[in-house]
Amino acid sequence: MAASRGAIAPTKINYETRPRAASDLGYEVEFVVDAMSATAAEEHDFAVARTFPRFGRVTTTQDYR
């Protein structure tokens, strides 16, 4: 599933696999968590709290630099 510019992409599909690979390659990764969605709120919340911090910086659209 490809996300188009400005679209909200599912958390589990796009924002776990690709950032993990980018982090492994040495890229700095940022997760703008209020610009993502998931099929269930619990999935999103778990990824934000447990998975994303392992691979990069977690931020919001307001705080994104």
Quick take:
By secondary structure, this protein is α/β, with parallel strands linked by helices.
Keywords:
single chain, two-stranded parallel ribbon, 3 helices
Strand order of the largest sheet: 1-3
**What is the N-to-C order of secondary-structure elements (H for helix, E for strand)?**
EHHEEHE
* Number of distinct helices: 3
| Uncertain stretches | 1-7
Biggest sheet character: 2 strands, parallel
What's the β-strand tally? Answer: 4
Shape: globular
Q: Structural class of the secondary structure composition? A: alpha/beta
Cα-based radius of gyration, to the nearest Å: 11 Å
What is the share of helical residues? 25-40%
Report the sheet-strand fraction: 15-25%
Give the terminus-to-terminus CA distance: 27 Å
Mean pLDDT across all residues, rounded? 80
Overview of the structural elements:
By secondary structure, the protein is of the alpha/beta class. Helix content is 35%, strand content 15%. The protein has helices at residues 11-14, 17-24, 41-51, and strands spanning 9-10, 30-32, 36-37, 57-59. The strands form two sheets. The protein has a two-stranded parallel ribbon with strand order 1-3. It has a two-stranded parallel sheet with strand order 2-4. The longest helix is centred in the C-terminal third of the chain and has 11 residues, at 41-51.
